[in-house]
Amino acid sequence: MGSSTARRRRSLARAAALGCGALLTGILATGGAGGTSAPSAGSPDRGRTVYLTRGCGGCHDASPVGDERPAGPKLEVKAMTRNARAAGRALGPYVLESIVAPRAFAVPGYVSGAMPSYAQLSTRELEDLVSYLIGAPFAATPAARIPKRPVAACDASARCRSTVARWRRVASLPASAVPGAKITAAADCLTCHRYAGSGPKATTAPDLTRQARRKRTVAWLVAKLRCPDCRTPASGMPSYEALGTANLRRVAIFLRASRGVQR
Ligand code: HEC
Ligand code: HEC
User: pTM value?
Assistant: First the structure.
């Protein structure tokens, strides 16, 4: 009981850490001063300092004289989670977007355009700020375990190739499902999910071998992979937005072809 709670908490922290937005990857790739390739995660403690020194509280905490309401919304996790869901994003990427591109989503009841963009901050400062606001380490850069070209990454690994060859045989996968199978095997899906006997023995994540039975559409699956929390609050599954739409569709096609181990 206690250990499963701890595991869940860890996986939630990881989910936040793995979140990423395509738009922001672009901004951060060109902008940030902390542009090392090693995956990093922000620190809530450092983020508090950035929040204070950049004057965020001037709008988000203080009331201007003569007005009882601050210019910006109170930055509470509950309200931000609600707004993130309305914007179709996971919490971390949503908060990051709110800071670098505030006009992308108008918080109900507030004037859109009233907040300046902070896209000039370094990657490190942005990750720290988001970590502070969501209360968990957040990494804007995609984690190393989500390869940039996942199909090629699988082709380059003998182990990944043999896993997919086995899946293809035992689950009678059509050729159209193979690219998505490679992506699933090359990304970190199998750290939580099982597929045709691959993956962890004990897991709370559903076995994906017979995912076809759930009759999810490609669009549903792509949206789920992009923002797991939008479908299931505090899902425990990270966002795979970093894979890009074409790859997410390949994974969806693979999952829709997964009818279980055929005997
Ligand atoms: C000039 C006032 C102002 C300053 C300074 C400001 N903000 Fe904002 N902020 C706003 C307003 C107004 C909104 C809501 C309107 C919108 O979404 O554009 C907002 C929205 C947000 C949101 C989305 C909140 C939600 O509930 O969904 C986040 C996150 C945020 N700001 C973070 C920051 C951070 C971090 C800083 C400092 C780096 C900052 N803001 C500085 C005015 C400001
Ligand atoms: C950190 C653990 C974790 C990782 C990594 C992970 N998932 Fe999940 N996934 C979950 C959990 C927990 C659920 C059940 C809760 C939910 O629906 O969000 C889930 C749900 C799903 C579902 C929804 C099933 C349904 O029909 O309701 C699909 C599909 C899925 N995962 C696919 C994937 C794929 C593909 C990957 C890799 C690209 C992946 N997951 C990576 C934990 C994970």
Answer: 0.58
